[in-house]
User: Fold these one by one.
Assistant:
Number 1:
Amino acid sequence: MTPNPPLNIRGFQVYKGFLDRAAQESLVDQIRQVASDAPFFAPVTPSGKQMSVKMTSAGQLGWVTDRSGYRYQAHHPKGGTWPEIPESILSIWRAVAACDREPVSCLVNFYGEAARMGMHQDKDEGDFRWPVVSVSLGDDALFRMGTTTRGGKTESLWLTSGDVVVMGGDARLSYHGIDRIRYQSCSLLPKGGRINLTLRVVDQGERPQQPSSP
Ligand code: MD6
Ligand code: FE
């Protein structure tokens, strides 16, 4: 894959239309397989609030949250290891991440009609030298990108199916979130909704596993 140059918005590199429809469909098949091995679950924040997305993971480590905190762990909340990250997903990372590490975690978030993702930093990975790569599939989503300060200036962009975003360098710890989706704006998922994949290198062991502040 030789991508067209990305848009650069506040240091977020946005590859519009990175995946064609056939590639998106084959990714959805792969994700269905991941979800049949590691079913979607309804995550709860440390404060006890149910998140509006449904979540699962692939890779050596999956990101989970419950009353005891946010963390990466090697097993699904209901037990068992996570399935391997499909090769087609790894190849997206290799094409855009510009680093010699492979991701160890692929978080899969499903957004139904009313789902959103509050402004947050991705900071549970233990090492921020590596980028986070995100893949959007299905319905359009309004992506808000800020600075490393909560409440700082933001800029928003509609992500559509097949878009890939790389959050690295100075933007690695920038706040970002999904304000809303345009439910059933895309025919990729027959019942509507949106899937977001985030690929990450996680370096544990450099600090104890402990809940990070929300
Ligand atoms: C989403 N994305 O697109 C939420 N995180 O559903 C993220 O939280 C995200 O897009 C890290 C890097 C890129 C992202
Ligand atoms: Fe994020």
Note: Residues 7-200 form a domain with the Jelly Rolls fold (CATH 2.60.120.590).
Number 2:
Amino acid sequence: MKPKILVTDKINKVAGDILSEVADVDFKETLPEDRLCEIIGQYDALMVRSQTKVTPKVLECAKRMKIIGRAGVGVDNINLEEATNRGVIVVNSPEGNTAAAAEHTVALLLSMARNIPQADLSIKQGKWERSKFTGTEVFNKTLGSIGLGKIGSRVVKAAVAMGMKVIVYDPYVTRERVEELGASLVKSLDEFWGVCDFITIHTPKTRETAYLINRNTINRMKKGVMLVNCARGGIVDEEALKEGIESGQIAAAALDVFEKEPIDPNNPLLTTNGHLVMTPHLGASTEEAQLKVAVDVAEQIRDVLAGKSAKSAVNIPYLRADLLEPVKEYMNLAENVGLLARQISEGGIKSIEIATRGKLTQYDTTPVKVAVLKGVLSHNLEDVNYVNAPIIAKQNGFEVIEARSEQLGSYAGSITVKLNTDSGIQTVSGAMIADKTPRIVRINEYVTSLEIAEHILVAPHHDKPGMIAKVSTILGNNNINIRMMVVARKEDTVGGESTMIITTDEHIWDEILDEMKQVEGIFDARYIYLRPDKTSLSLQHSMV
Ligand code: 9EZ
């Protein structure tokens, strides 16, 4: 019998042409949970945009479901955990929107610079206000792009073509990549803010980019700067932006994304007095992007139903259960070794070397490798999972080198990651020091024993009495509780360099780190986060 596919949410009809090669296709309007549950049991595949909510209850009713396709990027409307538990593959289209988002950025940039929305409104009121809408040229001006991924790169190319000088801040790309596009790389945001006439953002929202545009950074920008955010809501502090525009520090801003969407009627930006252009998250809204995502996803559904593999699966347990079983206890450790190595490195990745030792080497260590890649990549990319981590590494040309040594070393099993980036090589090792007791046992030349904690402070300091008290006093004054602490010496002599590694119950904010860096004898203070294995199910959770 031919498989049956349900297509909802006004998806482009070409999806039907592709899917009907292998299945009977039903197009229906968006259905609420109960109505969807009534009919979903007869379908082998489901294709949605963002309106249809694929809840655990829907999945429970979907007894024959094999694959769900999301025609777009984000999969927030699909309960991935439940889908994974039920063996349902979820696929999406991570690249279908790239051109649309880049073009919308350029459209916002120019309409902001030339007051197009304001002038349009004015002329439609029968006015002819020419001097009021005198604009600003982008030619010969400096555009700063924060982030240089697929979308950022296209925007940079367009800006260079318009005669802009372009600088890029992105701690995760190589200088060659930036220069290839005709732009130049700045190595710190300190060198960035003050030189840009225009700023555009092209990063995911991560711990590092949330509220990156805030009162402090706005004040460091050139007076009269113009800002575009067509990336993610929450990267710009909207209250601070309102103040910046009203004070004249920011001459104009253009936004496609907001902290809360759909926009809150009380959003401060709706009553901002000054130049501000806004669109309701239209970045991906073009006919072509909607067509491309529909084709991308329909092709994957067709292929999977025909027994082939999907190119953009978000959740398949890539790792065969039989391969995973013997190395399961090392998966979270491996991810954290990778995540830590990435956080202490800078610049574009050249290679990732993964060495396993001891008992681990008796098994196929592919899952361990994939976990390391997930850890390394997930610090600065969105939606990295066990399925796409190896693919992303490959697409970016990161060389992945595996090595193994059956020699036991000091531990039953250990994992060492050597991350080679623009800034040099960082080496981190993790080991199972006893049953269910994973530890980070080495960070570069420091031999240590660090628990996998959510919040970690790393403070290299002059090895002399009294230093620990100074650091712990600052933590105490800020009401931060210490869970565990280790002090690791670089060389085994007094008077050299030593490092305090402190795990805490809370995030350590930049202001606290800055206070520590002021202390005589403290060379640096850095915050690092890891992802401890919270429940025995965590492997399944982190699968998605
Ligand atoms: C990080 C970033 C920007 C940034 C740039 C990119 C993922 N990611 N994160 C810290 N591509 C500014 C500050």
Note: Residues 146-147, 149, 170-172, 203-204, 206, 208-209, 212, 380 surround 2-methyl-5-phenyl-pyrazol-3-amine (CB under 6 Å).
Number 3:
Amino acid sequence: MPSFNKSSSPPPIGVFDSGIGGLTVVAELRRALPLERILYLGDTARVPYGGKSAETVTRYSREISDLLLSEGAKMIVVACNTASALAVPTLAPAYPVPMIGVLEPGAAAAVKATRSGRIGVIGTRATIGSEAYSKAINSLNPDLSVTAIACPLLVPLIEEGLFDDEVTKTVLQRYLDPMLSQGIDTLVLGCTHYPLLKKAIRTICGDGIQLVDSAENCAIAVNSLLAAGSGNARGPRLDILLTDSSEGFLRIAEKSLDLKIDSLSVRSVGN
Ligand code: DGL
């Protein structure tokens, strides 16, 4: 596969995540904006972000955003709930291009979806600890009840490609059971890795619970932002930068998400 060549390409939408999770956002962006060029950075050298402090996640996010900007990104999509919760509020005002996270679009979709007023949220320890989802949901409607549970074992299982594995199903059951007994009717997949487990989550939750996918809702928000002015697509392209080589990355991108990758390079970020 060829490596990435900046000069020959139109300004991309810059997208990043700690690892493969942000590819679920890329897949939705591809569907919503088939002509855009996307430059994706997966911080595979430092995944997972979910157990790290706000200072560390903000530093990583700044380093990556600077790199995407230096590659000509016309906007930055933070395809990571952890970075959206911990870093976007500080970083977004400081960047000369729009920076959009996954959290607000997911929270708004959950508020719209619930009928019973009881919403569940699953995410990394850092995302749940920040209470960013509860705050975003309750700022839209203070009467809604939010039950949030951290699921720290899921990202490593997903990075290993164990989507349909008995171990993953057992872990999911253990995380979801207490939430299901509280009578939620809407479950926010508050980590961009989790849509890769949608099938297993659906089996455990049954059909009566609406699954809110932050990837899908972020793509809808990017689409309306571009429609409002910054679109200049000239042809589809997906260039991928990883901060360390990752064996499973291509397999998951191509097989599970059906993404066509035009170039893949390893690039170091930070010190
Ligand atoms: N996919 C990310 C998120 O949405 C990061 C997970 C991690 O690195 O722990 O939170």
Note: The chain has a mean pLDDT of 91.
Number 4:
Amino acid sequence: MIVTDLEHAKRALEDDKNLIIPTETVYGLAGNIYNDETINNIYRLKQRPSNNPLIVHISSTDALGQVAIDIPDIAYTLAEKFWPGALTLVLKKKDSISNIVTAGKATVAVRVPNHNTSLSLLKSLEFPLAAPSANPFGKVSPTSAAHAYRYFGEKVDILEGGKCALGIESTIIGFEEGTPVIYRLGSLSLEEIEFQVGNINIKNYDNSSPIAPGMMLKHYAPTTPLLLTDNIPETLKNKSAKRIGLLLSQTEYTDREKSTIIIINNKSNSLLAAKNLYSDLHHLDSLNLDLIIAEKWDENGLGKVINDRLTRASYNFQEN
Ligand code: AMP
Ligand code: MG
């Protein structure tokens, strides 16, 4: 059921049920971090491997001490600058945080989401919420209540919060010997982070033992095969597929010879494209296409994170 009543949402979570909540990045499949059964159910519902930890959502920086210890000064600097917002910090966990939430790691990932409804909800609760993206593992994240409903139907209630304002997951930063490191590119751009802390290392590819699932080579994938290219006309030339969806960043595509070409997202604004990326993929994926061809973005601003997601979404695609 899609609900709008905050009291209903609060009661569900206090009764240790799962609830899908809106955030400014993507919708999250939430549960009380102190109830192991509720947390286990998040993994079950998502079919998420148990070695992939969850992000803990708190209502303000003041609550950080409830979940983390030995917090470096630079983490506070980043939190003050970017919270509430699309930044997740990986910090040393408090003993009271269950190993199920952190998938056995000594660290916990935490953020304050920038969404009025979910912030009010978090403020009204006496416990933080674990909430990974509300999609089956490896699939495109939901950026609307309707997307989440398509994945989970009546299995979990969904708190309506409109279309996600940013539309791509948070940027994850950890600390190695006190130095910040990016584990997942996300809605908070590299430029904004580097403006605060100077040059920063990115360690976001590791398939065998991912620090973050967003590190996996194959992720965020629609069911329809997806091909990523920087040359749309060339890529289209020899395609035998009948129904093709094009996700364009720049190219003005005029060749209409192919039988069915569906063009979506022909914009040069990377902020808007990031906001629409997953809803465009959900939409294209619902059209029974043979193939989606996406055009690469310029690497600046959010273009870099759009390319990151599209690269993972297209990984392993075999042409035939
Ligand atoms: P999701 O919200 O589904 O995109 O998943 C949450 C993200 O946070 C995943 O990429 C997790 O691996 C990452 N994450 C959660 N806890 C940690 C941690 N302790 N260290 C590194 N990454 C984490
Ligand atoms: Mg996810």
Note: Residues 92 and 107 are 4 Å apart (CA to CA).
